[in-house]
Amino acid sequence: MKELYKLENVYKTYKNYDTDYHALKDIDLTLNKGEIIVILGPSGSGKSTMLNLLSGIDSPSKGKILFEDTRIDKMKESELIDYRANNLGFIFQSYNLIPSLTVKENIELGKELSVNPLSMKELVNQVGLEGHFHKYPYQLSGGQMQRVAIARALVKNPKVLFCDEPTGALDEETGKKVLELLQDMNERYHTTMIIVTHNPSIADMAHTVIRMNSGTLVEVTHNKTVQKASELRWA
Ligand SMILES: Nc1ncnc2c1ncn2[C@@H]1O[C@H](COP(=O)(O)OP(=O)(O)OP(=O)(O)O)[C@@H](O)[C@H]1O
Ligand SMILES: [Mg+2]
Asked: What is the residue range of 98's domain?
């Protein structure tokens, strides 16, 4: 099966006194397995809301959300916990590392409960953290911390990696290195990556680009050729 997610007629509505505010309205969308998907849009357009619905952190007010043919919008909280634990990884703009744990221990946290973990040694080499294994987060640069966060998210070998502004706190050179790593991991493990960003340059490395505005999809495009992260222009 090629389709990973399918959204049908999805709304997320908040009550504001007696008026309804639609953070997402009437979304129909299919996301394919193994792709890098970039979601672009101005502040308040619904990007984080979309990630929260796909990852089961929040539920839609209306409509269907299917993950591999299973309705996640119908799941109970306990089922959602299993869905997230078994299938999803997350990285954020702030790396969310535990300051009192070493690089190795931080990455190992991601392995917990995993049925199919990757080899720690192999992963640490791939993300370029050899030699930093026993350091603490304060001894690392921003780019290195984000690498630890990526390794921690990938070590359980998730089907989907959600990335909310993964390069938001990084300079161009370091940001590109982090994106190269994500691209590399996508090719190696076929992990579907859903990246939310304000940086339109990142769209060129995506297989699919989703542009949002005011809670709707403005455009969904599929790139015929995908650019290497190292060759991106930077906005
Ligand atoms: N719990 C909530 N209650 C009411 N309104 C909300 C709530 N969560 C989000 N919204 C509104 O929904 C809209 C979409 O928010 P969302 O966080 O998805 O935007 P975004 O595209 O991620 O923005 P940014 O780029 O600033 O992160 C915003 O107008 C926001 O104020
Ligand atoms: Mg957001």
From this structure: 3-228
